[in-house]
Predict the 3D structure of the following.
Amino acid sequence: MRVSLADQASGGATPSLAIALGANLPSRVGGPIATLIAVRPLLEARVRQWGRSQAEGPAAFHWSPLFETEPVGGPPGQPAYINAVVRVNGLAEGQTPASAETLLEQLQALEHHFGRERQARWAPRSLDLDLLWWGDLTCYTPQLQLPHPLWRERDFVLAPLAALEGLAPEPGWAAVPLAGRPGWPEELPANGLTRTTEPPGRPEPHPD
């Protein structure tokens, strides 16, 4: 499945753009789930505004369900993350590193709005917005790398991408799909859900 998920980047006949969302600390609006629900319409509005010059027509936003995932790297004992991915179709024009960096600035402005503090690498954060790809654009600058060099290796990205294709997480993926709720209705079919309540504050310890 890890290979087939890469096909999402091409979006078939229409190249797509993908953004990963994550949070594991409270923000100005509440816990991580509240943060992702609050940032969702703001993110969509900013992408639409940025994408006016890149749009072939109306941009189509495809949101994954929310997932609870285990932290990767960073300090031990940090809370579990809430993650999702949005894939946007219809932004095929003007694929340049400069335009992608402009979008990155918009993402970072939203992170700052929700209290993101950039500290140690992989440290807990109130909001993380990562640009995963934009069609077949390649970009290697000090500010941005596209495609994101690690997206194929992260369960917290792969599980939401799989859900966009209607697939449950593969066995062994450290990602638990959450039920839909007001402000974030997307969810896997009932037989794909394994938790329907708020996630615990901290992940369970790993066995030795």
